[in-house]
Amino acid sequence: MTRVATYDAIVIGGGVMGCAAALRLAEAGMRVILVEAATLGGGASGANAGTLSLQIKRLALIPYALRGLERWQALGSRVGYRKTGGLTLAFTQDEAALLAERMALKQAAGAPVTMLARSAIAAHEPGVSNAVVAASWCAEDGYADSTKTGLTYRSLLQAAGADIAENQPVQQIDENGGWTVVADALRVHAPRLLMAAGAWTVPLAKQIGLDPDIRVRVNTVTVTERMPPIVATVVGHATGLLTLKQKPNGTVLIGGGWQGRGSPGTGGTIDQANLITNLQLATHAVPALRTARALRSWTGFEAHTPDFMPLAGEISGRPGLFMLAAVRGGYTIGPYIGELMGDAMLGRQVELPLYDPSRTFEAAA
Amino acid sequence: MTFDVAIIGAGPAGASAAVAAAERGLSVLLLDENDRVGGQVWRVRYDGSGEPDGAAMRQAVSEARIDYRPGTRVWHLDRNERGFTIAYLDATAANTTAARALILAHGASERVLPVPGWTLPGVVGLAGATALIKGQGVAPGHAAVVAGSGPLLYAAAVALLDHGTHVAAIVDTAGLSDWIAAFPALARRPRLFAKGAAWMARVGRARIPIFRSHAVVRIDGGLQAASATIAPVDRAHRINSQQQRTIDCDCVLLGNGLLPVIEPAVLLGAATRFDDATGAWQIDTDTTGRTSIAGLFAVGDGASIEGADAAIWRGRIAAAAISQDDGAIATMQIKRNRAARLGLRMATLAHTQTNAAENATPDTIVCRCEGVTRAMIDDAVIQGNMGLGAVKGATRAGMGPCSGRYCSNAIAHLVAAASNSAVADLVPGIVRPPLRPVPLAALVAGFDYADLPPMKPSPL
To answer: CA B34 → CA A170, B29, B42, B61, B321, distances in Å?
Structure first.
């Protein structure tokens, strides 16, 4: 049996949130180990379309998203960050009304979003269709290259002196005057344990008698071949069911949360009908996309709760046990809420409130 | 409608399976990317002529009750409790069809080992060049160096000669002793042996220099390949770069054997196994072609390389297995095994263990779509990216338009070498749809915004 190594904190889950939390702890001088079942950034943090848009964040999470955006900005070219500005489009009068109502609320919550005059839309983004009835604009929107998430955090964590154990699915968690985590080639103990395994959090939590109400969405993303420049900004849809941007290498990434099938345990596959609807919406928004060829579609697992709010904080009655999962807009918010989580584990005052992971949900959400 | 069985690929394996399934009274759909039945091995020549075996197969398909759809490109495969759905494009539109059983007969792709200069214009695969000459009547150049391994080397050289192209040299990674070792298997297949002997006689008459136990180590040229530099390969498959020699040419044909096209089966979740003898992943099937997925069969070189003669029987056996005609299978297996012996021997000979780790210098481009060099792959491994998926994410190797179809075998060998592990211990790369690049215009044709399903806005 492997000897037990002792740490100040163990973080399970090497996505953006687990990484950011572990980094915060290591930078504060704690001895930290990050345990990841596969590879850093290999789950939703690497599979998502990389959109950093304030226009699609939940109202209550906009303050978190603004601070998350600052973190991505600071990481800059290491994560392929680009500030392009973003447009959200409406194609019918009903959608236009929905958009205006929603964006007014988001503006009030602190997101610098404005509704564009019909005549100003083409000036902000010549690539969008003239079928657009109304559009909102946020100059702060942009994207990062999600495939660089794991690489970047790996080097940051190494520089901060954190230990990283990849390809180590957790087999057992014991509560014994702290927390002992056992994996294939690993046996570690610490007084603090953070579960930050995204859509994979439920089986983990069950090992210590918890059953968080985490549900999973299977989001589809598609990339095209390289193309000449056809769209310069991040383009979305009033319903939130489209994201689209062209990367510096000319490929166009198309997302928006259209559902595939499968589960975190067995893997995901695309649903052909939903994929095609996603692409219809994309070509409707940016007509030049019709000349593109789709190269690859894949799915990522996004965890959420019945109220679509995060599980973030210490588990009540289980001192030293923390959870950070199901953050809607988690890619944008992740670097910041991970820091907050680290602060909570360090016993520091948190800048913005966390979300009690032990709360109960109304039935029939 | 839902077909009893759908078959993808109308080469020897797929066409045989289709005819045999139709003879058993099953409703059969046969999809093929080519315009004519025959696959690569029985490709109809540009002047309309072709091998008698291919003509016979085309006749059989045309006479059988088969819904044959040539010129179709399958881009996605899915399964449910009723069977399989197949999404494909034809000349005009995107279509989806369904079948209770599915036989994959995608055939092989060729292994091209990356060497410096292999991305220059004028450098083509052995099989690619053969397809070009046969199908289009066009040669890739005027003076060719034909290099690599396996019987295709000599077949390609003869195709060039027949076309009137000068062959400056044949560079065979295998030594004479390797060929002698293959002799018993060859001698048991008189028809193929005669074919091979005729190729060798033709090459001899044309006085083409043959460099045995040699490999191309570099191709030079400006806008076009202008010379190939070769060097001896020793018994331990090491290249002796002290004894180089340079041969002038304007095209280089490269190929080190064939790789099963496993992506469609992997997309459906079928299990694979790594075959050390040919240095490639295969589909894990039983002797009838049945994969780990119920109702899914993989036959012919697309499952594992056994050659065209065996592929015919493998197609027929799968059709018999689907119609539960177990009695017919045993005698067909004997014929298949007899044919497979030579195919396996040739596949092993073509592999020759000389892999990308030996041929590629640090500056050599490995993934040509994304311009990823060997050094970039080595660095990604050194930085702690373990496994094919992580290296792909770090370097973009295999993420271009070919989706790794050309380079994934070379990448796997390089990652294994850089991480001191065996290729067999790597997890093969995940396969994502589409299987081929799909024009968005085809998928969204006829779309009207008003037809969109009701879209529930995301929570505020």
So the answer is: 49, 15, 11, 14, 27
Whether residues B394 and A294 touch (CB distance < 8 A) is answered with no
Between positions 10 and 69 of A, the ones with CB within 8 A of B are 39, 41-42, 46, 56, 58-59
Chain segment B140-188, per-residue pLDDT in tens: 999 999 999 999 999 999 999 999 999 999 999 998 888 888 888 888 8
Q: What is the model's pTM?
A: 0.94
Substitution target from B432, B436, B448 for chain A, most A beta carbons within 10 A: B432
pLDDT tens string A52-111: 999 999 999 999 999 999 999 999 999 999 999 999 999 999 999 999 999 999 999 999
Min Cα distance B270 → chain A (Å) is 13
Query: pLDDT band at A218, cuts 50/70/90?
Result: very high
3-state secondary structure chain B: CEEEEEEECCCHHHHHHHHHHHHCCCCEEEEECCCCCCCCCCCCCCCCCCCHHHHHHHHHHHHCCEEEEECCEEEEEEEECCEEEEEEECCCCEEEEEEEEEEECCCEEECCCCCCCCCCCCEEEHHHHHHHHHHHCCCCCCEEEEEEECCHHHHHHHHHHHCCCEEEEEEECCCHHHHHHHHHHHHCCHHHHHHHHHHHHHHHHCCCCEEECEEEEEEEECCCEEEEEEEEECCCCCECHHHCEEEECCEEEEEECEEECCHHHHHCCCCEEEECCCCEEEECCCCCCECCCCCEEECHHHCCCCCHHHHHHHHHHHHHHHCCCHHHHHHHHHHHHHHHHHHHHHHHHHHCCCCHHHHCCCCCEEECCCCEEHHHHHHHHHCCCCCHHHHHHHHCCCCCCCCCCCCHHHHHHHHHHHCCCCHHHCCCCCCCCCCCCEEHHHHCCCCCHHHCCCCCCCCC
CA distance B362 to chain A (A): 22
3 state DSSP class of A151: helix
Check CB contact under 8 Å for A294 and B460. Answer: no
Taking the CA of residue B305 and the nearest CA in chain A, the distance in Å comes to 27
> Is residue B384 left, alpha or beta, with left meaning phi > 0 and alpha meaning psi from -120 to 50?
left
Q: What is the ipTM for the molecules in this complex?
A: 0.92
Q: Identify residue B54 by its one-letter amino acid code.
A: G
User: Is A6's Cβ below 8 Å from some Cβ in B?
Assistant: no
Residue B441 with chain A: CB contacts under 8 Å: 283, 290-291
State whether A298 and B399 contact (CB < 8 Å): no
Tokens of B179: 């060929």
